[in-house]
Amino acid sequence: MNIDSSQILAQQIASIQYSDLPKSAIDATRCNLLDTIGVALAGATAPGCKEVVGFVLDSYSGDQATVWGTGRKTTAAEAALANGTLAHALDFDDTHDAAILHAGVSIVPATLAVAEYIGGVSGKELITALSLGLDITCRMGIAAQVPPVSIGWVYTTLFGLFGATAAAAKIVGLNAEQTGNALGVAYAQAAGNCQCIPDGSLTKRMQPGFAARAAVLSVLLVQRGITGSVNSFEGQHGLARVYLHDQWNKELLLDGLGKKWHHEDLAYKPYPTCRHTHNPIDVALQLTRHHDIEPGQVESISVGLNEEGYTNLCTPIDVKLRPKTVVHAQFSIPFCIATAICRRDVFIDDMSEQAIHSPDVLNLASKVKPYVDVELQRIHGRGVTPAKMTIQLRNGATYKGSSMVARGGVESPMNFAALVPKFRRCLNHARASDSQRVDTLVEMLLNLENLSDVRKLMLAFA
């Protein structure tokens, strides 16, 4: 009998224990929790977030879970919506370069909301649940054999929904049958499309929140007896056929299940922009700092990319040269290169509503000439685009550089210690806490397995 992979995953979710996790998976989960909380608190001031948080707190009374950074509570499902939106608002969250998605932005908000709601969840239980959810989300992205933009789905949301459901199911202690039903209930709500990216709409940052909320609803409804489809992935009308047009590799999904933990390969961002912009930003910063280049000296900038990076972040060129919204700016290689040269950094304030209209940045962005580099396309055809750059100065000087491996990924990782300065900088941007409380929060996350109740963690950054 050919068992649907959703049911195989359900068995894994119900049976795995903290003692089954390798240290590498535990450390990877700790990193993800630190980074997701940090970028979410920093994201509270981003466009659209105040409106989402205000709507949730005004519309849904409850004391189940905290909306991060407010000290106020609402229902677990709506807290997950708000916190998922905050976590993705800056595009500063994790990425899995092979799966082409962000994992923590749905899994962490949903899991913490449910853990706070039921109470008594230990740090080890939280780590176990998060590890499962993060791994499953990444596995689904790897199993999909078609790039998200070409098919129209945002894998962050589409697959993050199932990872978040898995983690929340583990937190509340659903058995294998119930967990399978929860994945089925989640499938009834699966969504998340790419149209928000070219349109530059604020739903780009809300979609992971929608997935987190749907995950919480799925688990809590199954607790009350609701059932869902049991052949959710490979069934006649399952995810593989309906959403992915049968471009789905079940073997890749299940390969090494319980032994290989794919969230160990998550990348963490040094810049609050689309991952495809990171190699271009890195090489722009290297050349600018090494040669002390001033924006006014620049005659032209050519940048070679792979086709995926060029198509998604350099077209239509008029929008990429003069972004109309922050989302447009975050997904514009010309704008990000210009920002790196003008500011000698790319951080949160450089992607604000005010910053995207900066005359010096826009003037320099107009001098960026992106193109598809045949050699880069041959070697790096899919995934995060590398970058070859030539900066021509008005005095005739020419400087060339390249960046093949974006910082923060598997080949150039950022561990917990490397993520702490980013975390501090995010909380400083949010004015979320004083240095002593930040120290306390970092220490709690560093020793998360010793925490008796996750609610103590929530109090530390609520």
Describe this structure in words.
There is one protein chain. This protein has 462 residues and is α+β, with helices and mostly antiparallel strands. It has two domains: 5-270 and 414-461, 2-methylcitrate dehydratase PrpD (Orthogonal Bundle); 275-403, 60s Ribosomal Protein L30, Chain: A, CATH 3.30.1330.120. Helices cover 54% and strands 7% of the residues. It is built from 23 helices and six strands. It has helices at 5-15, 23-43, 49-59, 76-88, 104-118, 123-143, 148-151, 155-172, 176-187, 196-199, 203-223, 239-242, 250-254, 278-291, 307-314, 317-321, 326-330, 333-343, 359-365, 374-379, 416-430, 435-446, 454-461, and strands at residues 65-67, 72-74, 298-305, 368-372, 387-393, 398-403. The protein has a four-stranded mixed β-sheet. The protein has a two-stranded antiparallel ribbon with strand order 1-2. Helix 2 packs across helix 6 (123-143), helix 8 runs antiparallel to helix 9 and helix 18 (333-343) packs across helix 19 (359-365). The protein is globular. The termini are far apart. The model has no long low-confidence stretch (mean pLDDT 95).
State the helicity in percent bands: 40-55%
Spatial separation of the terminal alpha carbons: 48 Å
Strand order of the largest sheet: 4-3-5-6
Provide a count of the helices: 23
Q: What's the CATH architecture of the largest domain? A: Orthogonal Bundle
Major sheet attributes: 4 strands, mixed
How would you name the CATH homologous superfamily of the largest domain? 2-methylcitrate dehydratase PrpD
For the record, what CATH class of the largest domain applies?
Mainly Alpha
Number of strands: 6
How big is the Rg? 22 Å
Broad structural category = alpha+beta
Mean pLDDT over the full residue set: 95
Looking at the structure, what is the overall shape? globular
Please write the string of helix (H) and strand (E) elements. Answer: HHHEEHHHHHHHHHHHEHHHHHEHEEHHH
Number of domains: 2
